[in-house]
Amino acid sequence: KTNMLKTKTTSALNQFSITFLSQRSGCLPMELDRMLKFKRAGIACLQGLDSSDHDLAASIFGKGYGRFCAQGSGEANTIIWDRSLWTFCASHECNAGLAVDLTSQGQTIRVACLRPTLEHSCEADFADFLLSENVNLVVCVDLSLLGGTSSAGLVPALLGLHSAMFETLGHEVLVPKPSASNEPDADDLNPLWDPCGIFFSGVEPMAALSGYTEGYLATLSQSKMGDSTVNFPQGKPILFAEFGLNGFSQDFKSKK
What we know:
Layout: E1 5-7, E2 15-22, H1 32-38, E3 42-47, H2 54-62, E4 65-72, E5 75-82, E6 87-94, E7 97-104, E8 107-114, H3 124-131, E9 136-142, E10 162-163, H4 164-169, E11 175-176, E12 192-193, E13 196-201, E14 204-209, H5 214-218, H6 222-227, E15 239-244, H7 250-253
């Protein structure tokens, strides 16, 4: 039932890691520093975090990270990166949807963070911006309003992209679905879902955290779920994936 790190064999030399959290919080999660430093060249997408506050922005900068924030329609997204390894090049915003271009040692990546809705899953110009150029692309997306990662095909910005979790682990990362009910009956299992995902093109997924086993989550008591908010805050997982920048391996290309 413990966290596990699965790794794919790859010849990629240049690596970076992505941490993705989706939660309504006014501060940086305590465990974020540790996860960003777990692998070099750390980047984090923080869906729901408005980092325009002066004190919060100063705290992020003081920890050695650059940041960019987008706001709109009552939503916010923040992307932060290790300033010693990444240089900010450009950004593109569409309401709260955010994408930034970062460079390191001659390599460029585009990282996006968004939370599409049923009414307007993703504006066309934002999708065109993400997908129209041949760039190394990683998109962190909260699909909870669309029912989970199985609805990724409804989002224009994700068309043609691969799931880092599925390609590395063989499945998306599940967490207990929030419920207003009390402790379930003895024969009941906790409903699980996969509200968030990390999607990519042009880079190679190398490792990902698998989280807890499905059986453990399905039988977890409500009291323990209350004590485990660090693992799935507000019914959302903390996702971690590592990528290589030298393109897909031959084995991965053959699966397309």
